[in-house]
Amino acid sequence: MTTLQRYPNLDILPAETISLHEHHDPQRTMPLISRIKNSGILYNPPLVIPIQGDPIRYMVLDGANRVTAMKEMGLPHLLAQIVDPESPGMGLQTWNHVLWKIEPDRLLKEIEAIDEISLEAVSEPNFSSQSLAFLELPDQRRYSLTTSSPGRRSEIITKLVRMYSQVSLYDRTMIEDINGVDGYYDQLAGLIIYPPFSVSEVIQFSREEKLLPAGITRFIVSPRALRLNYPLERLASDRSLQEKREELQRFIQERMEKKGVRIYTETTILYDE
Predict the structure, then answer these.
(1) 55 preceded by cis ω (within 30°)?
(2) How many CA atoms lie within 13 A of 141 on its CB side?
(3) For every residue of the chain, which 3-state class applies, written as one string?
(4) Quick check: 73 pLDDT over 80?
(5) CA dihedral 233, 239, 241, 246 (to 10 degrees)
(6) What CA–CA distance (Å, rounded) separates 8 from 64?
(7) Residue whose C-alpha is closest to residue 45's, from 60, 58, 56
(8) Does domain 4-91+218-257 have CATH number 3.90.1530.10?
(9) What's the alpha-carbon Rg for the chain, to the nearest Å?
């Protein structure tokens, strides 16, 4: 791999060519717009992947709230990091959700009340095309959540997440055994384990506008551009797309010439997010 190949592919894209695969959080959009306007800076570019077609469109991998906020600000062009779908540095994982501040039996009743979800007691996860999730309770009871309408999986999962976000608290986690979170949460209710999704599945959800809830997919991308600190006025200007792209390249080149770009190959933990 050459030095140039190690740097992220940053580009300016027409705002209308960028679509989401997951719902944004409306409660975060207005505060985010205020923060972006007050700073006048795009700190971290959203990640996008090209979707083949004519013309080529782009799906957001990470940064749904930022993209939504900038679109609502009326920016004609957005700056994004374009990720090659064939890159060995890209992977897709699934977040699980740990739920607390609700009684486990009430949680079961709330799930059973959702149309198109069937609960079945099982011993281990066994995901199929009809699977929505696997639920493990603190007393070791385990349930498979399935649907007879697999074509509506994303919508039904959205209903599920909306339900427990209203009646409980939840966190994202990569843990797959409820024993791993026991003792860390007050009134632990359960662990929801979501099935793995393929990149092609997620792209199809985006094409059909059948968005997943926020906090389900976890795209891993390396290298990733952070703290670009790009002036928003350059995106908002009436210059042509080509002029803005050339301006971005000059900005990056100046940063590199001033030795303002650093690559971290080791695991890095940030304390100022």
Answers:
(1) yes
(2) 12
(3) CCCHHHCCEEEEEEHHHEECCECCCHHHHHHHHHHHHHHCEECCCCEEEEECCCCCEEEEEECHHHHHHHHHCCCCEEEEEECCCCCCCEEEEECEEEEECCCHHHHHHHHHCCCCCEEEECCCCCCCCCEEEEEECCCCCEEEEECCCHHHHHHHHHHHHHHHHHHCEEEEECCCCHHHCCCCCCCEEEEEECCCCCHHHHHHHHHCCCCECCCCEEEEECCCCCCCCEEHHHHHCCCCHHHHHHHHHHHHHHHHHCCCCCCCCCCCCCCCC
(4) yes
(5) -80
(6) 19
(7) 60
(8) yes
(9) 21
**3 torsion bin: left (phi>0), alpha (psi -120 to 50), beta (else):** alpha
Residues composing the chain = 273
Say which residue the tokens 């997943």 belong to: 212
Domain ranges of the chain: 4-91+218-257, 96-193
CA-based nearest residue to 47, from 8, 96, 105, 4: 8
The 10s digit of each residue's pLDDT in 27-70 is 778 888 899 989 999 999 999 999 987 688 999 999 999 999 99
pLDDT in tens, 97-144: 999 999 999 999 999 999 999 999 999 888 998 999 999 999 999 999
- For the entire predicted model, the pTM comes to 0.89
- How far apart CA 137 and CA 26 sit, in angstroms, is 30
How many whole angstroms separate alpha carbon 114 and alpha carbon 3?
Answer: 52
What is the distance in angstroms between the CA of the first residue and the CA of the last residue of the chain? 30
